[in-house]
Structures are given as structure tokens and as C-alpha cells.
Amino acid sequence: MEVVKQACVEASSSDDNALLRKAYASAQWRILPILFGLWMLAWVGRSNVAFAKLQMVVDLRFSETVYGLGAGLFFVGYVLFGVPTTMLQKKFGARAVLAGIAGAWGLTSVAMTFVNSAPSFYVLRFLLGVFEAGFYPGVVLYFNAWFPGKRRTRNFSIFHSGSLFSTVTIGLTGGFVLEHMNGLAGFQGWRWMFFAQAIPTVVLACVAFMMLPDLPRGARWLSARQRTLVDDDLRQNAETMGDTGEDGRPLLLNPAVWILSAAYFCLLAATAALFFFSPTILREAGFGGYKEIGRAVAGACALGAVGNVLICCVGGSAQRRRLFCALASVFTAVSLSALVFVWHNSTIATFLLLVLGFAGTGAGITLFWQMSVGFLSGRSLVVGVPLISSVANVAGFVTPFLIGYVRDATGTYASGFIMIACVQALGVVVLLFGVQRIAKRRSPVDDVSVRCPT
């Protein structure tokens, strides 16, 4: 009789494991493509100005400083509205907020078609940052509510690759539009590019509102048993530690928040340099027309995305994330500093260094967030994630403005890129030693609100 009971228990456990795997697989196929698409289109909206720059600065008579300031103003709005927008997600749910802000930035991107002066450029770039501000930290919290541990890291690395594939989209479509639609119906090619690349965001935002569930327990395509199994699995695999949420100190006095913000600032400085100036770098490296530059950008980002996923797969475990995040940052620092010496001499070396840089920034940011959510408790996670994101995104404002200003002052991008490479190297130090200080205080805490932050 005991043998029969044991066999029944084992069979039930096996069935539950199969149901759980099926539940996560179903969630990945239903959630990941939508969020991947929106993140890719978010980056299209924020960084296609780098490709439009090839025509726009001439047509509107913008200096490099004006371009850099406009590109960077996106991040001012992003910084100011990151925390408030993410708090709305806690109140109204992930589906409504993520889809709503996606629709808003999509319409703002459409409006970029009609930019005719520096002030209008500045205003729309600022508004674009306001509307995108809550999306990325919101998705960080959303993934934390849906996937445990290594599964979350792998899925998040795929999601984050959308930022790299955005440049593939910009490169392939932008080059064609700039070259073949310039002058169509009296509009310059860069205006058509803004319009054509913005419409899909509005469409996908509507799809997200109809299809995304807020939490596993609200997913109609999961059975009642699967919802229970997912909930139990997330509880058992929660990765959090005690912080100011447990001892009563205000979040702004939590050293973990500021150490993580410093590390993320360095990562984003390098990301902004690569995304906002890679088309210009490729043109100066000897790549010819718009389509050739577009194909080169697309190829570099596609290979960089593959490198991102590979690095995250190897370094995705909780014990490896910090070290592999630092290693990815080393790759980026090497890429930025070496580019200065090769982009006027070798097209092949320039292309390969951009691949290395995109892989390093993608993996660094992905691993950073999967590492960071373990350093904040449930009560501070919901505010801590957007706060870190907002503070660090100041780098997105400083970097393009600084590089543009240095270019106007010196006639070259070299000094600007060397400065950003040094910032990235500083980020490696923060990751290896500053974040290690936080890790030494680690003590697991089972906190339901970490699993269900929305």
C-alpha cells in the first residue's frame, strides 16, 4: 500500500512539473513577443534620430550641439517621470499602464514628422522621454511577477535584445526611406522615416492592451492548477534581500540604491554613445550611401544581440551575474576606446568593434537588472527600480550633448568617446567592488510583494 501511495505522489509531482513547464512556456510565447516588440519600437522612437541626423541637421541647419542637446532632452523627461509612471502601474496594473504609455510615445513619434525648428525638436524629444519613462522599469517589475531566477534572466535577455534589434529596424528601413522617399509628396526622407517607424508602435500598443494579463492569477489561458503552481514556484524561488524596506530607513538613504545607480549610469553613458552616433561613425569609417550604412548598423546590432543572449546564458545564474555584468562592461570600454583609433582607417575593424560594443552594453544592462532586483525588498522594489533607472538615465542626457559639444569644439569625436570609455571603466570598478559591498549584506527574505509588485 505504501508503495502505491508513493507512486501516486511521484506521478502527481511529475504531472505538476509538466504543467508548470507548460505554463511558463505559454507565458513566454504570449508575453515575450509583445514586450520585445514594444521595447524594440521604444528604442526605434528614441534613437532613430541618430539615422535621421544624416539629413535632418542639414535640412534644419542644426549644429552638432543642437542635435546632441535634443537627443539628450529625451532623458530629462525620462528621469523626471520614471518613478511617478511606475507608481501608476502599481495602482492601475501593468496592462493598462504599459499599453497606455506605449500608445502615447507612439503618437509623439508620429509628431516628430513635423519638426521644423530647434524648439519643436527639443519639446518633442522631452515628451518622448516623459512617455517612455515608466516602460522599462515597469517591465523589470512585470518579469519579476511572472518568472523566477534563471528563467527570468534568460527571458529578460531576449526582451532586452529588442533594443539592439531596434537599430536593425532603423538601419534597414531608414536607409531605404532616406534614399528612395526623399522628396515624396514634398516631404524630406527623414520625415517619412519618423512617420513610418512610429505607426507600428500605436498598433502594437492596442494589441498589448487587449492581450497582456496583469499577473499570473489573472491569465485566462492558464488553468486554475497552473496558476497555483506558478504562484507557489515564484514564492519558493524569490531572490530578495533585506534592505531599508525592512529596517525603516528612507529609500533615499539606502546605499544600495546609489551604488546601483552609479553602476547603471556608467552602463547607460556607453549605450547612448553607441546608439546616437553609430550611423555617423560608420559614415566616417567609409561606408557609402544611406542603405549601406543602414545594412552595416543592422548587421552590427543583430550580431551584438546574439552576443548579448550568449553572455547572459552563460552568466545568468545569481552567483555569476555581477562578474559577467562587469565583463560585459569591459567589452564595451574596449570597444569605445579602440573605435577612436580605427574608424578612419578600417571599415571591418569599425564594424567588429561596434558588434562588441553592442553585445557588451546589451548584456551589461540585462545582467544589471537581474542582479539588482535581488538587492531590494518588496516594499522598496517598486520605487527603487524606477528611481535607479531615473537617476542613471541622466547619462543619456549628458552623453550626446557632451559628444556633440566636443565635436563642435574640436572637429572630432575622439575626445568624447575616450571620456565615455573612461566612465564605462569606472562602472567596472563599481560593479566589482561597490556592488560586492551590497552582496555581503545579502540575507534571503520571502516577500510576496516582490513577486507581485503590480
TrEMBL record:
One MF annotation (Gene Ontology) recorded for this entry: transmembrane transporter activity
Membrane topology: Multi-pass membrane protein
Main location (coarse class): membrane
Pfam families, per the entry: MFS_1 (PF07690)
Cell compartment(s), UniProt: Membrane
Database matches in InterPro entries: MFS, MFS_dom, MFS_trans_sf
Residue stretches making up the Major facilitator superfamily (MFS) profile domain: 31-439
Cellular component annotations (GO), alphabetically ordered: membrane
UniProt entry keywords in alphabetical sequence: Membrane, Transmembrane, Transmembrane helix, Transport
Transmembrane segments: 27-45, 65-84, 96-115, 121-144, 156-178, 190-212, 256-277, 297-316, 323-342, 348-369, 381-406, 412-435
PANTHER family xref list: PERMEASE-RELATED, TRANSPORTER, PUTATIVE (AFU_ORTHOLOGUE AFUA_6G08340)-RELATED
Protein name: Major facilitator superfamily MFS_1
Organism taxonomic ancestry: Bacteria, Pseudomonadati, Pseudomonadota, Betaproteobacteria, Burkholderiales
